[in-house]
Amino acid sequence: MAFSNPPKRPSDGSDGTLLEGKFNWKMHIGEIRNPPNLLNTFVGNRVSEIQSLIEGIPWNYVDTKNNPADLASRGVFSEALIHSRLWWNGLMWSSVSRLEWPQQHNSLSLTDLPECRKKGLVFIATEGCSFPFASFSNLTKLREASDN
After folding, report:
1. Domain annotation covers residue 19
2. Has residue 139 been placed in a domain?
3. Domain around 74
């Protein structure tokens, strides 16, 4: 059976870009690899649950062009699957020791993750406080001074 209009290849952020409103594996694996308390509450709770279920199991990313599971979702015709080495044998390196697998580099830093908990700044002033609040014309300058 052939499609009259074959499905188009989805733009799913598989190149590592963060797409608003799209599911992005690199982003979610980045979240799962980080401590849940550094993420916003909702996502942190989900990540904590996932980490407790998979304790000690590493999560890795396989880009879409090398992932046999993605062949069908990319609209590959059944005739092409018959001759697809990737479809029938899987990833070349998946049958060797995990020590020989390609190194995974998490290219997303914690600050690249949209669900990263933002750090807040709190000042508590008491009587006799010697901090010169009046010397700062706005909160940004006060914040910069407090970082030093």
Report:
1. no
2. no
3. 25-117
Measuring CA to CA, which residue among 32, 28, 26 is closest to residue 13? 26
Is 104 within the bounds of a domain?
Answer: yes
**What Å distances lie between residue 4 and 1, 7, 9, 69, 75, CA to CA?**
9, 9, 15, 23, 12
Q: What does DSSP assign to residue 96?
A: S
Beta bridge partners of 39: 116
Q: Which residue has the tokens 């005739």?
A: 79
In terms of average pLDDT, the best of 5-9, 32-36, 62-66 is: 32-36
Q: Which residues of 81-113 are buried (b: 16+ CB within 10 A; e: fewer)?
A: eeeeebeeeeeeeeeeeeeeeeeeeeebeeeeb
**In terms of pTM, does the model score above 0.85?**
no
What pLDDT score was predicted for residue 45? 92
The gap from C-alpha 46 to its chain's centroid, in whole angstroms, comes to 14
